[in-house]
């Protein structure tokens, strides 16, 4: 077997170089990706193998769901694999996705399996998709697996849309409130400040506070912009490191109301993902590893890896799930019943359906609670500024009337 040298980056962003023996460059690339190493170049006897790139643009999750749905129909109809990929690539409006599918087709034509060909494009096809496709190819049920993948992605899109819809209203109102308050402090308050300075009247405490705040905003407005940019940049940098991401996710899960919603989202995603993998024939240990990596939550990822290690030691899944403290007892007990009866995949899907409904209800409750709070804060902020500006005028009118 040939010897290859490679370089790439691991999950922490560190540069990795090494030398491996493998059957082909494609096989080595797939092996490295399973080890959570993103290869940049693979070299054999002076010939560099440039890995296929994702291309420009971004592939939407909905497009991937439609692709899996169409792909399953074509496979079920008996069309050859390469022809299916050629047709699907030709009919893609998204140029980035078209390049990806063309690359997958080329790899399949070169002798790679569909799963390994898809692994060359991790920005489009995640571990869950490639492992399910691999199980489908091995079991001769690729069309069924693709249908399940389409259903899984569609439900994931629905769950994500529910969360985004819940965030649009409060974020929009808060943004508008910040702009209104900023405009009042920057342009309206200085007009009143000049008026009061000309009249030489004594200003009450609320008015002085607003005047000083306006002066600060007028001279140091860039500080607020810098703080906003710095906060966003700092959070991104913290989120790049495993420990930082774990701390942030832990804080979010402990937050009142929001933490409960995030926990329900995490449970729904975990049960749906693991249930889909087990139904597709992926072993539970591998399924837990994939679910952990694709969970999107560092706390959940660490908990699932502990559960996986406990199962490797011969324990059942119930006790480790309870010990990790992330999942509600009801979820642990139901999964335990599914394990005992040999119907864990069906039980996981039922739990996912229940918690997805819970997420819908929780987002509606969150909106109902946030709406009066946000409106109240906006009213107090804007109303307080306006009243503080008119307080000296009221005092003057009272003196004149007296």
Short description:
By secondary structure, this protein is α+β, with helices and mostly antiparallel strands.
Q: How would you describe this structure in keywords?
A:
Receptor-associated Protein; 3 domains; 4-stranded antiparallel sheet; 6% strand; 402 residues; single chain; alpha+beta
How would you describe what is shown here?
This protein is an alpha+beta fold. It folds into three domains: 48 residues; 94 residues, Receptor-associated Protein; 240 residues, Type II secretion system (T2SS), domain F (Receptor-associated Protein), CATH 1.20.81.30. It contains 15 helices and four strands. A four-stranded antiparallel β-sheet has the order 2-1-3-4, with helices on one face. β1 and β2 form a beta hairpin. It is elongated and about 95 Å long. The chain starts with a strand and ends with a helix. 31% of the residues are buried. About 3% of the residues have low confidence.
């Amino acid at each position: 077997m040939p010897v290859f040298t490679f370089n790439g980056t691991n999950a922490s962003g560190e540069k990795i170089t090494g030398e491996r023996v493998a059957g082909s460059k494609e096989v080595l690339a797939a092996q490295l990706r399973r080890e959570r190493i993103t290869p940049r170049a693979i070299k054999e006897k002076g010939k560099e193998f440039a890995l296929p790139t994702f291309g420009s643009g971004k592939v939407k999750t909905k497009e991937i769901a439609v692709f899996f749905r169409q792909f399953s129909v074509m496979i079920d109809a008996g069309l050859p694999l390469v022809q299916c990929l050629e047709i699907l690539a030709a009919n893609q409006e998204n140029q980035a996705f078209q390049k990806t599918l063309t690359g997958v087709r080329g790899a399949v034509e070169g002798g790679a399996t569909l799963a390994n060909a898809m692994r060359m494009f991790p920005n489009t096809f995640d571990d869950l998709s490639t492992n399910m496709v691999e199980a489908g190819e091995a079991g001769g049920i690729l069309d069924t697996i693709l249908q399940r993948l389409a259903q899984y992605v569609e439900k994931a899109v629905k769950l994500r849309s529910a969360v985004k819809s819940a965030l649009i209203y409060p974020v929009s109102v808060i943004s508008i409130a910040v702009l209104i308050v900023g405009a009042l402090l920057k342009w309206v308050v200085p007009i009143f400040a000049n008026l009061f300075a000309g009249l030489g009247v004594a200003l009450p405490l609320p008015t002085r506070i607003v005047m000083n705040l306006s002066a600060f905003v007028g001279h140091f407005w860039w500080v607020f912009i810098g703080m906003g940019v710095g906060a966003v940049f700092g959070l991104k940098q913290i989120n790049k490191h495993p420990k930082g991401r774990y701390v942030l996710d832990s804080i979010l899960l402990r937050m009142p109301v929001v933490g409960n919603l995030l926990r329900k989202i995490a449970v729904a995603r975990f049960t749906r993902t693991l249930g889909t993998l087990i139904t597709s024939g992926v072993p539970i240990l591998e399924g837990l590893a994939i679910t952990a990596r694709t969970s999107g939550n560092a706390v959940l990822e660490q908990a699932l890896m502990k559960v996986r290690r406990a199962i490797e030691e011969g324990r059942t899944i119930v006790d480790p799930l309870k010990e990790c403290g992330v999942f509600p007892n009801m979820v642990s007990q139901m999964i335990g019943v599914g394990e005992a009866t040999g119907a864990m995949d069906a039980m996981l899907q039922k739990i996912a359906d229940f918690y997805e409904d819970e997420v819908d209800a929780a987002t509606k409750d969150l909106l109902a609670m946030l709406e009066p709070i946000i409106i109240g804060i906006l009213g107090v902020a804007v109303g307080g500024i306006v009243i503080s500006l008119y307080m000296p005028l009221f005092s003057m009118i009272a003196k004149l009337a007296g």
